[in-house]
Structures are given as structure tokens and as C-alpha cells.
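hey can u run this one w/ molybdenum atom bound, need the C-alpha cells asap thx
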Amino acid sequence: MHPGGEIIMKAGGSSIEPFWAMYGVHMQDEVFELLESYRIGNISIEDSKLAAKGAVSDPYAFEPVRSYLLKATSMKPFNAEPPPSMLVEQFLTPADIFYVRNHLPVPIIDEDSYRLEIQGGPHTQPVSFTLEDIKKLPPVTITAAIMCAGNRRSEMSQVKPVKGLSWGPAAVGNATWTGARLTDVLKLAGLNPDPDDTNVQHVHFEGLDMDLARVPYAASVPASKALDPRGDVILAYEMNGEPLTRDHGAPLRAVVPGVVGARNVKWLGKVILSPAESTSHWQQNDYKGFSPSTDWDTVDFSKSPAIQELPVISAICVPVPDTKVELKNQKIDVQGYAWSGGGKAIVRVDVTIDQGRTWHVAKFMGQDKQAPLTRHWGWTLWQATIPVEPNTKEVEIWSKAVDASYNTQPESFSNVWNLRGVLANAYHRVRVSLS
Ligand code: MTE
Ligand code: MO
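ok here u go:
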């Protein structure tokens, strides 16, 4: 039943300490209370002295220095998001406040000895490239938002608790990504797979961050996305025109625009063409959606497909929930972001402060104007100025976005709730008092 069940089993028969040090998210009261019910005894003083001699070193000793503006949802591994109000300050999110989602320690990579391995299929020898080889290919720049499947999870957990990091609405950022097209890298490796080749149905990306059994973080995307030049999948070495930072995947990361964050593999070590999906924990036993009635006793991860494209979403970033807002000319200023997976542009954002009796169409403040409606990878920033009735003491602001396929957000979380707290895209609701 443990979401990382396979990993917990690797500790069987020996000390749990190295695992405890690696998965620091477990250092919480809830987990200690749960473990208490399994206590079978205490280690003798002599044995605990022995254990102290073999004390494990901290696998997180070489983490990068991070901005104090990021609010951590977990320290080891490091997971953090900026204050939502900072997201709407600019169309491109600066790297130092771009949310960070790490499952493991940030790997230490020497750029000079770095190699990217390409495995063309089950029966071919891997080919490897240096970073220079990748940089010699024609550079391509795309604007794309990356969003975690757990963005806004904390709101879903108000309906009923869910398992996962308690993200607010800022586990998303928008940036330009520069790198080589995946298809160009594959061609350099002598691979030009036919779209109908049944041996190439999925493209796997493996990171250089590894667990204690040296199993890397890995994910896969369908070949139809990865091998289509219009899919704009790139192996990026720059973010917003600067070299990638360690937290965001230096020296090379896969950017799979329009697809959930989890498939945008950082610290890319390997690309594998395969007839099957990645067997990684994160592809098979995590990042999947379920019915609101599925619980941890009945869940079967093999029954749901891995999340790839995310559904349409919006969030209010200004004003900040539960604050006192000063009106200007008896009007309230509301700002936020909207985005949809699969490259579907945002075509409208509706905002209400009277539970939907009156909807106001927001103005778009930032959008990638060159991007076609169906290859629109970046987010849309929006703003609305809404008149407020005199003597109103409090308002609840709602936002909902509409994408190019006229998909829109569900009204509430109750009927999209799922045990893992993913795909949390209901109307965003922010309550503020007025002065
Ligand atoms: N790649 C590796 N190698 N290791 C990871 O832990 N996390 C994934 C993805 N790529 C991850 C990874 C997840 S779940 C998300 S949401 C994004 O990276 C986050 O990217 P960011 O930290 O640059 O914002
Ligand atoms: Mo994520």
C-alpha cells in the first residue's frame, strides 16, 4: 500500500537508516505515529553504539544554494515553490524562483566528462555524445510552461486527505528552453525511426539522479509525441537564455512541452527507444488518476494510464488568499495564470466575484503570440478589474480557463478528488476581505 512499495522492500533485512536519509519526506509526526504501531522493541544501548559508528553520510550534502524566496514543501529531497504573487510579475519565470521538484539528491555532474547515451532499440549498441556534440546541432528555442501533476494539491486535500507533497498553486513556471531537437540528436546517432515502427512506441528518458539501488529517476513519453518534429521535444541546455541551473537539470534536460512535469527529465543521462513504456516507479505506480471512490485498499495502478498531457487549469495569484485588499475606484484587481496540456492555447479566462451570477472576461497580459493555437506550450497571464458593490466586506473570487478545444475546468474538487491528489484543476477560489 505504500506508494514507494518496491523501494521500501529494498531495505528489508538490513538497516533502514540509508533510506531514511535519502527519503527525508518521512520525517514527520504522521509517519512516526504510524511506525509506532509497528514497534517490536528497542535496540540495546550496545547495538545502538555500534550503529552510530556506521552512521550514514547525508546524501544531500551537495545540494545547490537556493533562493530564500522559495517556500519548501520538503527539504530532502528538495521541493519548493515561490509565492504565487511572484509568478504574475513576469511572463518568463526567473530560474531562481521557478518551482523545484526533486525526487532524489541533485546529482554531481562534471560537464567535461558528461555523456548522453542513446539506445536505439532493444538490439542496438548505445551511442554516446558529449555536451559539445549536442550544442553543435542547430539550436531551437521554445517557450513552455512546466507544471507538476500535484500543482494545487493542497486545495484538493481539503475535500479529503490525499498522499503527496502539499503544493499550492505555484508548482508551475514558464520559461524559454534552448537546446537541440530530440529528432536531430537521434539522427546524429544514426536513428531515424519510422513512425509505424512497432519497436519504437515509447521514448524513455533516464536521469543521472539515482536511488540507493542505483535505479535512476526515469519516465517515458509516446513516440508519436517525441518523434514528431511538431511535438517540439528538445534536449535543453539553456533556460531563459542562461545555462541550466543544477536544480533544473544541468547540463541537459528533456523538455516535452505540453506534457506533465514528471516526463521532463532533468540531468538526462540516457534516451532509449522502446516498444514499451518505462517500467520506472514514476511511470507505473505514480502520476496516475483514479475515481474519487478508489482508495488505498482498492487502487490498482496498472488500470490507469500514466498522465501525459495535463488538463486545462487556471489560478488566481493576486490577490493573496485571506488578506485585506484595498479597492481602487471600488474595483478589485485580479491576476493569474492559465495553461492547458497538449499545446492547446488558452482562449478565454472567466472570473466571478458573485458565485457565477456575473462572469468577467479577463484581459490577457502575457501570451506567446507567435505560437499556433494547437502548439501553444507557454502559459497565459491574465488580469481582470471587477467592480464591487459598495459596503461589501468580503468576496470570493473564482477563475476558470477555456482552452482551444473548449475544454474548461471542473467547478469543484469533490468529484475529481483522487487519492494521490493529482490533476487538481477545479475552479480556483480565493477569499479576501475588503477595506
Ligand atoms: N527529472 C529527474 N531526473 N529527477 C526528478 O526528480 N522530477 C520531475 C521532473 N524531472 C524529476 C525530473 C518532476 S515530477 C517535475 S514536476 C519536474 O521535473 C520539475 O522540474 P523543475 O524542478 O525544473 O521545476
Ligand atoms: Mo512533478
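The chain has a mean pLDDT of 94. anyway lmk if its weird
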